[in-house]
Amino acid sequence: MGGRGSGRHRQFGSWDTEDFRSLDVRWLKREGLLEPGRIAQVTWSRRDRVTGEIGIIAERGRIILDYRQRPRGGEWETLSYPVDLVETPCNLGGARPWFLCPNPGCRRRVAILYADRLFVCRHCLSLTYPSQREDATDRAARRADRIRDKLGWKRGILNGPGWLKPKGMHWKTFQHLCWKHDLFASRALAGMREDLDRRYGRR
């Protein structure tokens, strides 16, 4: 685990939720990782390379997070602490789980926690959502990058498309994602050209 941004550097503006590793309680429930007695190791990866991992021990009404982390330039430390869980009823039956932010001064009910030294809610880290500071060009480029991640392509629309279909993906799905990627990439490139024209007074 790493500290703020896990090695990524933000030069302009505030940090956003995509700059931090996260835990989503809805995903944990779908995977059965909230069942009391369940012990699991959750990992983060990029392009098949593991970039972080955390141990999760599920108990009744809470989970225990267990991991090692090193602040930038600091020493490694081992952290183990509880995150309380609560549930609210759903309209059609059942219940929806929530984290209670483990920051003693917060305790908000949230679906996602973000990793700094501890896993806390976005309010504690003053994080924005990417969409809050995006224009149409940024939004199109981000959507194209999300598709590139699904397809195993290197991020960045200027890198060009990949050509191999990911193993196990249906051809129809692959072709649809390629079409969507090209659509978003075209919108982003058009926005970049317009921005350059405005900056340099091109006609």
UniProtKB/TrEMBL annotation:
<protein>
    <submittedName>
        <fullName>Uncharacterized protein</fullName>
    </submittedName>
</protein>
